[in-house]
Amino acid sequence: MAAGLVVLAAGLWIGLIILLQNQGFRQYLLRVAHAKVTEALGTNFQMRDFAFHLSWATPTVDMYDVVVDGAAPYQTPPLLQVDHLAVGVQIVSILQRKWYLNDIVINHPVARVQVDENGNTNLPKSKSDQSTSVFDLDIRHVMVGQGEVYYNDRKSALSADLLDLLFRAGFDTNQTRYTGELSYRNGHLKLQNTNRLAHNMEARFSATPQTLTVEQAVLTTGNSRVTLAATVHDYSQPKLHATYQAVLDSGEFRRILKNPSLPVGVIHASGVLDSASEPNRPLLATTTLKGDLSSSELNVSLQNQRVSRLHPEGFEGRKPA
């Protein structure tokens, strides 16, 4: 009987491999996938082609040229385009239906988020009433490479783009915790009537069903650098505790903000920020900030004189030439 079951299983695998090589069967699977994913996402989904790699316990599907349209009336350009998406499944037990997502690899995703003057976005609203936590998915490893994100908020005249985006995360089943890193090397941020702010970011994080911890996040732009560590408890009503250290070149922000009245110099800042989300209370009312601000020298332009040196003992000034 055992030998017969082995032969039967082998026959099923071989039959599935043969079916997957049949173009008609592949087109049928593409149509089924298109219908199911479109229904789940609440917007149109399509992919050019796919491939299966089969083994006894870790089947993998590769999807190519994946496109997810935005919500009406902003279907184009697409909300998301992915050159290659690979999803691997680790089968623990066929009889007990135990499995987990062993590996997810996303190559060159391009996301475009739009917000119009009335606050409407191109983000789809799922038609499914059931919500699944990322911790329920049990994804052992996920990697996003060469990502691009574009954000355009016409209501607040804000635009941002992140290039060379890299994301890695792994799951620890014993602690029900994700750990990973997020970074990008070529980010730009622009507000109305300002110059573009070019910056880079690197961050290490861990997340459980109750807590998100940013072990260290470093944001750099020109000669300025901000280092942050933060913890967020209770996702439904977040409570934030963060510490920061910063070295800011005010001359760079003078150029970005197009404000020649800002002082020129290097500012050092450090402190602690605490914030709690409470119903019917504005965020600023529940936020406290304690810290130090210092600079060895600042050049400040005044109407009748120019302050060339500013320090705790006083300042030296002279009338403009």
Structure overview:
There is one protein chain. The protein is of the alpha+beta class and about 325 residues long. It has 2 domains: about 15-210, no CATH class; about 235-320, no CATH class. The chain is built from 4 helices and 16 strands. It has a 16-stranded mixed beta sheet that branches. The longest helix has 19 residues, at about 1-20. It starts with a helix and ends with a strand. Residues about 315-320 have low confidence and may be disordered.
Features:
321 residues, alpha+beta, 2 domains, 16-stranded mixed β-sheet, 4 helices, 16 strands, 15% helix, 53% strand, elongated, disordered C terminus
Question: Counting H and I runs of at least 4 residues, what is the number of helices?
Answer: 4
Low-confidence stretches: 313-321
Strand proportion: over 45%
Can you count the beta strands?
Answer: 16
Overall geometry: elongated
Supply the number of structural domains: 2
Oligomer: single chain
Q: Give me the secondary-structure category.
A: alpha+beta
The proportion of residues forming helix, as a percent range, comes to 10-25%
Mean pLDDT: 84
Question: How would you characterize the largest beta sheet?
Answer: 16 strands, mixed
What radius of gyration results from the CA coordinates? 26 Å
Helix and strand element order: HHEEEEHEEEEEEEHEEEEE
Q: Kindly report how far apart the N and C termini lie.
A: 102 Å
